[in-house]
From TrEMBL:
Listed name of the protein: Delta-aminolevulinic acid dehydratase
Pfam families (UniProt xref): ALAD
Gene: hemB
Biological pathway: Porphyrin-containing compound metabolism; protoporphyrin-IX biosynthesis; coproporphyrinogen-III from 5-aminolevulinate: step 1/4
CDD domains: ALAD_PBGS_aspartate_rich (cd04823)
Organism of this sequence: Rhizobium herbae
NCBIfam families in the cross-refs: PRK09283.1 (NF006762)
Length: 338
């Protein structure tokens, strides 16, 4: 028999990586990660009033919705199999003050939204944020005193707000404020109020990123912010500090961990999953979403393929799920697949 060994066989030691890529069926058979609807959490923005579906200019395809429309959206999301929503309020300016006191009101916009969704669509999870930025007149995530975001007073308030949100029916509290000690304080407050079954998804590593701009327009804080948030968000240059921050949240009782933003911080996603073994989520933030939408609108990229590829990248980096404004689009695509 003629020896058909090729010089490439000798170079590779008879190992050919392309064998497993040669056909669709082999590629499917060896695929390491898959994106499913179970991986999706849909962030939505809620405004006062009724019958409102208001496009957000900086986030094409994303709307602010009144509670009744948010309930309709929640029902559609549940029908598509999306496990949970993350809700964010855009409250009236007249209700915002230096301390974000409306965060403690049992009937505030975020809590009324939770009640309405859980009543109408009980099989979908509701994840709420207790950061004060939607409620403050200065746009910061905490209480501002003498030009400083005061940590301990803020922690006390968000712990109280977490209990109010749990009483409204929130399934998971997701504090994004990045105050020191907040996870332990929230866990203690929830347990003391009898809410042991309410989980905490910690924004364990929230970076002082330039990717948040469109979100701040969505909740109406962009023009309010005085200064920046660098005294409490993590420097984008610091991976080790981010891991220390996450470790503290794990010690304090976080049930799940989040990385925000998402795609620029895939290394942090991987390190967190490897280090702690807890469920890890990435937040594909507004700036990431808008870049893809803008490039697609200009014909520079295939928007659908890039959307799906970025979400799959989170899975490859160890994430158990993704908060994404693309969630509904992706769920519809996945629903059509065999």
């Amino acid at each position: 028999m003629t020896d058909k060994t090729n010089p490439v066989d000798l170079i590779t030691g008879h190992r050919r990586m392309r064998r497993n890529r040669k056909a669709d069926w082999t590629r499917r058979m060896v695929q390491e990660n898959r994106l499913t609807v179970d991986d999706l959490i849909w962030p939505i923005f809620v405004v006062p009033g009724s019958g409102i579906v208001e496009p957000i200019e900086a986030m094409p395809g994303v709307n602010r919705m009144s509670i009744d429309k948010a309930v309709e959206a929640a029902r559609e999301a549940a029908d598509l199999g999306i496990p949970a929503l993350a809700t964010f309020p855009n409250i009236e300016m007249s209700l915002r003050d230096e301390t974000g006191s409306n965060s403690l009101a049992a009937n505030n916009l975020i809590n009324e939204t939770t009640r309405a969704i859980k009543t109408a669509v009980p099989n979908i999870g509701v994840i709420t944020d207790v950061a004060l930025d939607p409620f403050t007149s200065h746009g910061h995530d905490g209480i501002l005193r003498g030009g400083e975001i005061v940590n301990d007073e803020t922690v006390a308030q968000i712990a109280r707000a977490a209990v109010v949100q749990a009483e409204a029916g929130a399934d998971i509290i997701a504090p994004s404020d990045m105050m020191d000690g907040r996870i332990g304080a929230i866990r203690a407050a929830l347990d003391a109020a009898g809410h042991q079954d309410v989980g905490i998804m910690s924004y364990a590593t929230k970076f002082a990123s330039a990717f948040y701009g469109p979100y701040r327009e969505a909740i109406g804080t962009g023009g309010l912010l005085k200064g920046d948030k660098k005294t409490y968000y993590i420097d984008p240059a610091n991976g080790t500090e981010a891991m220390r921050d996450a470790a503290l949240d794990v010690e304090e009782g976080a049930d799940m961990l989040m990385v925000k933003p998402g795609l620029p911080y895939l290394d942090i996603c991987w390190r967190m999953k490897e280090s702690f073994g807890l469920p890890v989520f990435a937040y594909q933030v507004s700036g990431e979403y808008t870049m893809i939408k803008a490039a697609a609108a200009n014909g520079w990229i295939d928007g659908e393929r890039v959307m799906l590829e970025t979400l799959l990248a989170f899975k490859r980096a160890g994430c158990d799920g993704i908060l994404s404004y693309f969630a509904m689009d992706v769920a519809r695509i996945l629903a059509k697949r065999p």
